[in-house]
Design brief:
single chain, 300 residues, alpha+beta, Alpha-lytic protease prodomain-like, Alpha-Beta Plaits, 69% helix, transmembrane
Length: 300
């Protein structure tokens, strides 16, 4: 099941690259038609989308490589590196946009062929919106940080694109040329904020952040319900690395229990956790009842 998920994630990453190239062509076409710096800002972010989609594709491919002697826990964290790179590219793009917006503010120019340019940009925005929704769905299903990061970036791009479209239309209707560089600057600040948030979220994965409260509750419930014969589980620790969830804890059993019996309990708990959580990697340390801490997960 995990292998099928990896293959599907890779296919989605290839699709992301194709969509990013198509949107890039459309948005640069819209800028070429109009000369609008706001549409230039929108197009420049699409350059980042292409680079990010390529990085995500390579990261997903590397993350699918099985564990080896040098990487016994696998290569799944490669996806976090891709997400950090995407965040950095967003920040660079924002700074370039701000520079161009300031230049146009000092020397305003009238957008040309605005209706046609806006129509082309609207098609590109619709493509991004539909693909972002698909990336969210597939990213959550496959627990892929690279796809989720790409989806967040595209959805932020959609929001800014809609603002740009409305603003450039306003410039064409009112003749207020200062709106064009202002919209470009607002677009840059928005993607700067989204890039910073993306880097922060990705760094949390690289720093072995624990799973969220909801998933932790499911883990505790599964251990409690399927460890009959044991006394308690304590020192439960979790971390996520891409689509893998690492779970480890100490399982306290009666002192007179045989190794075979304790191992049977561990097998039962592992099976329950893997059924509940795809991609779970579980380590259980068995201890005698004298090691009980009387806190953690009590066995039902």
């Amino acid at each position: 099941m995990l292998a099928a998920s990896l293959n599907r994630t890779f296919r989605v990453a290839i699709g992301s690259l194709g969509i990013a190239l198509a949107v890039l062509a459309l948005k640069f076409g819209a800028w070429w038609l109009t000369g609008s710096v706001a549409l230039f800002a929108d197009a420049l972010e699409s350059v980042v989308n292409v680079a990010a989609a390529l990085a995500a594709l390579l990261a997903v491919r590397l993350a699918a490589v099985p564990p080896d002697a040098n990487h016994p826990y696998g290569h799944t964290k490669a996806e976090y590196i891709s997400a950090v790179l995407e965040g950095v590219l967003i920040v660079v793009a924002a700074l370039v946009i701000l520079h161009e917006a300031w230049a146009v503010f000092l020397a305003p120019r009238v957008p040309q062929h605005a209706p046609l340019g806006l129509a082309v940009s609207a098609v590109a925005t619709l493509l991004n919106f539909l693909w972002a929704r698909m990336l969210f769905r597939e990213g959550r299903k496959g627990r892929s940080p690279a796809l989720l990061a790409d989806g967040k970036h595209l959805m932020a791009d959609v929001v800014t694109s809609i603002g740009v479209l409305l603003g450039v239309a306003g410039v064409a209707l009112t003749g207020q040329l200062w709106l064009d560089p202002l919209l470009a600057a607002v677009t840059a600040l928005n993607i700067l904020w989204s890039g910073g948030r993306l880097v922060r979220d990705s760094v949390s994965g690289l720093m072995d952040e624990a799973v969220d409260a909801e998933l932790l509750g499911r883990i505790r419930a599964a251990v409690s319900a399927h460890a009959a014969g044991a006394i308690e589980a304590h020192d439960l620790r979790t971390r996520h690395a891409g689509r893998l969830i690492f779970i480890q804890f100490h399982l306290v059993v009666p002192g007179g229990m045989t190794v075979d019996a304790a191992h049977e309990i561990c097998d039962r708990v592992e099976a329950a956790l893997k059924s509940e959580i795809e991609g779970a990697i579980i380590t259980i340390h068995v201890e005698p009842e004298g090691k009980a801490k009387h806190h953690g997960v009590l066995v039902l």
